[in-house]
Amino acid sequence: xxxxxxxxxxxxxxxxxxxxxxxxxxxxxxxxxxxxxxxxxxxxxxxxxxxxxxxxxxxxxxxxxxxxxxxxxxxxxxxxxxxxxxxxxxxxxxxxxxxxxxxxxxxxxxxxxxxxxxxxxxxxxxxxxxxxxxxxxxxxxxxxxxxxxxxxxxxxxxxxxxxxxxxxxxxxxxxxxxxxxxxxxxxxxxx
Length: 191
Prior knowledge:
With 191 residues, this protein is an all-alpha fold.
């Protein structure tokens, strides 16, 4: 049975008359009634919706870089035992360098991409620690260790315009590895 393109309008007046007119209250101000949202709350709600919409659009705009940062972290992860596909470490650093050398990558973006790279690297690589200390300390350790590649990403974006940027990237990675193996309390040099 075919449906018509018109929707039935049950219970709606077809002219400008109001079926259930509201009782006028001369003393009432806008926002005093329970069904009227208060202006301040509706403004805050509109602002939150606007921010969420902008955030969603920014994530969509950066989806290629975000995806490449995650793939690079996972590639570095599988270059370590038990997989041992060492050659993927070269690809991982190349992918991370591609993300960090984009013109659209800011300093904060470099920190974020480095942090995402670090999470994708440490979370799947360190679950064996959870067997000794539990899931929460494993997660916290992974997040703290991901801060080191995040710092690398921040500084790498700052030096990407130098003529010998590959040298600077390598030197910065070596410095962050040294820092990771010494800070805090003797560091975490296992990975």
